[in-house]
Amino acid sequence: MALSNHAAILRTLSLSASTRTLGAALLLLGATPAFAQDTNPAPAPADQSTGDEAALVVTGIRASLTSSANIKRNNVTIVDSVSSEDIGKLPDVSIADSLARIPGVTAQRLEGRDQRLSIRGLGPDFSTTLLNGREQVTVGDNRGVEYDQYPSEFFKNVNVYKSADASLIAAGIAGTVDLRMLRPLDQKKDTFVVSARGQMNEKDKLNPDGTRYGYKASATYVGKFANDTLGIALGVSAQSTPTQIERYAAWGFPSEPAAGGNLFLGGAKPYVQSNLLKRYGGVATVEWAPSDNFHSTLDVLYSNFKETQHLRGIEFGTAPTWGSNGVIAPGYKVENGLVTDATISNLVNVQRNDLNERKAENISIGWNNDFKLSDTIHFNVDASWSRATRTDFLLETYSGTGYNSTGAKDTVHITQNSDGTYDIVPTLDYSNTSVIRLTDPRGWGYNGTTAVVQAGFLNRPDFTDDLKSLRASFKGEIAGSVLSGWEVGGNYSRREKQSKYTSYFLCPKGGGTNCTVASGTPTSVAVPADAVLSESVSLDYLGVPKMLTVDPMKIYGLLNSVFDNRPDSLVRDNTVTEDVITGYAKLTVDGDVGGKALKGSLGLQVVHTKQGGDGQIASLLNGVVTISPVSASTSYTNFLPSASFSLELEPNFYIKLGAAQTMVRPRLDQERVTQAVSIDISKIGMGSLPQNSPFSSNGGNANLRPYQSTNIDISFEKYLGNSGGYLALTGFFKHLTDFVDPNNSVLYDFTPLLAALTPAQQAIVRGQNAQFGLVSSPANTGNGDILGVEATASLPFTVFSSALDGFGVFASGTYVDSKIRYGNSATPITLPGQSKWVATATAYYEKGGFQARATYRWRDSFLAELAGLSANPEYRLGRAEGVLDAQIGYEFKSGPLAGLSILAQAKNITDQPFVTTEATDKRLVREYQRYGRDYYLGLTYKF
């Protein structure tokens, strides 16, 4: 019963969201009316541009850049985009690669692929992703979309909106990524395209059950029927993408008394990892326009992928301060307070053969119907459903010389390399099965009350993310006024994300119960010969010549599985629901100001949210786990005004201004209702300070409000005649409020839980007022500012001389400065994913069917987010990095091979590793991942 009362914790952090208004009517003074202009954020197809652009006839890379320039030019909002070079052909290996070339967008590489996108210094938690204007769910742990789930061949444009519009539902603070599928009725002719591409990593497979070869194949059909009133687009795609990773992770660097108090490598995990991502998917679009009064479009996207990861390595504990029991030999070397060379004896190390499997499905369906009610009024209704499911199988298996440091000890020599990693050269032969056994070498196994033999561990998380949405709107024109049009509408959405976690201790069979040592569970077992693979793994890149290489699934079959019922494990199961009603209204502007063309919009969104969650609170005392179900909900309303204007000061020279209040919802795991209560009787009698209380709790906060931002954007854009080139300079400012502090703690009276203690213990706690402990849960206590500048140049060299036709460059640079503070803290934090300086440059040549391109992306150091223990996010300082990609190709324009094109690509030519360090000392490398170069060769045939 006491735990049920503890649900009140979740109601202590409720914060009211502020509302703000913006005005822009003064910009309309002196305006004269002109024709109506649609300022809906969804851009018109690139081939519908007007004026000089209609005369352009370019293909491939130049067609992609020209289409993107037209989208940017014709939008009142500030937008950047990537367009396909042809049907089924985005200009990069993946969507994330393409987005990383957009000004102000950077990508963090994980598992060898660009995955986590930051827009204007704000990570994926601050942006939203739409598919054809509809919000999407994700197979990830939170809201941030993993772009691997979308086959790049299926999209015509990928747009990043950086300023807001009232009709843009579910916009983000950083920006809104809108993936746009092609529209069959916009295509000029029926088309069938097939393509195939082979992939090879420069590294041979690092694990015997890995591969260095992959492929990608796709087919796309676009056709029009019934006098061009019915259009159908169909696409299928399959790929198998391997990645080889040499990994190194340091535990940390404690001050080591046995080494003169100098910083010492606490421990390290050198690994080799082989990934294989298999994905297949399909899309279908049916577009029907039987008359000028009705237009219907149905979009369906399905994607299924499975990723398999084999990881093998050894965890070396080295620092005596951190429990290695090692003995540091005299003669160690020190450079500026850091031990760079040492020999350590009496070490017990843990060998790992792990297997991670991840299966996910994603389906998205959208149906849009537009009715022309009169010459000036349209009614539009749009229904959509997006659903993602994901299951993981995360298997760890351990081996060593004996249980809990009882086996043979090792002597290792460590030497720091120039890149900050350490060579770790052991004395033991870790592949010798007469020495190595399946066991818990360091005695790490603990179920909360007693020791267990943890010869392995299994995590099996399961996620389901479901979003249904219904939208309706009226849009009309206004004649004879500078206010050229109006739009009103509403959107209802319901999102439910279920997160389920089960985990198991794995121990040798043969006796005992629940894997506990006290019950007689065998502490080790011999490695079976039939589990040992014929090819062994080498970690020679860091000094380990050979290690035991086994099939982890065979080892799994030899071990007992015991359910992990620790409170921290049990309370991870949760469901978060969000019911959102959005109403909006806007006026569009189209007129003249002093003879200059002005277009724009004024709008307001009113967003009412009811959010809630279900889960449980759990505690552990004297070996007894107590569980109490809990639920909570809250509701709130946000008012989000916006204004956007585009003024053509001179022919082809625009000034664009955006001002808006925007919001983005917190991470879904932060909105969870669950709490894990800890009762630590060892703290009884330690005093009245909250941190010394025997009571504490850790979990989510179902009352969290969205992050809010007041945004000002201004852009100067000069378009270079009919060349498709342009120059742009954009400044932006964001004032953030209700920023979520994930490490917030509040004082809480745990008196209802005193009954769990003995009378004597209660008396001590009451005498010291130690019943007041800390509840750790996120809260909206932060605020701050972001200021930045973006500069872009898209220059086809024909603007300088017709002799340079075919040559060109696309380059951009971004500077971002931010100051974010939690509560009353005077120390600003670093935003995850933010680099102060980001630059990208693409040089290309394309003419007569031949094309060549090289792209270099560089980013300054940044705070990198990685998956830590139990998939919780951890942050490290990411080193500055530069990545070079290149491609060369040829398309046959005539003859028997007309329609055939060949393309060769190379990715990560600089072989740039992903490196993170301690923020206080960049010599202290925490993670090092080297992926090597990837090479691709592909053929495409267009009928």
From TrEMBL:
Gene Ontology CC terms, in alphabetical order: cell outer membrane
Any matching Pfam family: Plug
Secretion signal span: 1-36
Main location as per UniProt: membrane
Domain of life per record: Bacteria
Domain TonB-dependent receptor plug: from-to ranges: 74-175
NCBIfam families (UniProt xref): TonB-Xanth-Caul
Name the record gives this protein: Iron complex outermembrane receptor protein
Organism the protein comes from: Sphingomonas kyeonggiensis
